[in-house]
Amino acid sequence: MATLYITGAGVSAQSGIPTFRGDEGFWTIGSKNYTPQEMATRSMYIEHPLEFLTWYYHRFVCYRNHGPNDVHRWLADKQLITQNIDGLDGKAGNENYISIHGRIDEVTVFHSQGDKVSRTLAPWAEIDEAHLSDSLLSLFRIGKNGPQLNESLKPYVLLFDEYYTDLYQINVAQERMLNADRIVFMGTSFSVNITQMALDIAREKSIPVEIVDPDPAHILYHNVTVHRMTAQRYIEYIK
């Protein structure tokens, strides 16, 4: 059976990385002046690049050295699409997983969406935290006129006002969904487009769905099995 796993922030919680919608979640805590939904946008990066990069650095990049947990290691040989940008599935040894929303350890050149660009390692090791603002602007090649197309760098992360492109392997992700005999969602709130896309395909092709979450979202589909448990307990349960 070709099983496709689609994971969300709940899978990385055991590694000490906040989920998105809890009390300390990424989308609960914003900056001093903006909500997270305002911060995590392409518009904010263009108009207020320093505030965007500083927020991104403190809210995401600070977790770049965290390690994978048992669930990531269990998923290492599985067909996987993750919504997480922490890169822990790669650290666990999964060489073919899709990080559909990007990765904190990579950047791209700042480009028009849909343009073909390469991903490169992010320059976080070169950051001088004693002079964080100047360091961020310098390393991301941002001058007084803000980010420049095909010149400045941009974190490899899909923002709220951006759309899925081949850069984020959307075509490969859809192919995996279409070819799956079973789709297992682990630790996700079903509040992003990729999970809805997978559910639509599952309904259309009558693909069985499983949900692994201690507080699962309710979805309208008849062929669903719900496991009200953490991903850690689930992998112990099915062994």
From TrEMBL:
Keywords, alphabetical: NAD, Transferase
Domain Deacetylase sirtuin-type: start-end pairs: 1-239
EC number(s) recorded for this UniProt protein: 2.3.1.286
InterPro entries, alphabetized: DHS-like_NAD/FAD-binding_dom, NAD-dep_sirtuin_deacylases, Sirtuin, Sirtuin_cat_small_dom_sf, Ssirtuin_cat_dom
EC class name: transferase
PROSITE patterns: SIRTUIN (PS50305)
Protein name: protein acetyllysine N-acetyltransferase
Organism annotation: Pseudoalteromonas aurantia 208
Name of encoding gene: npdA
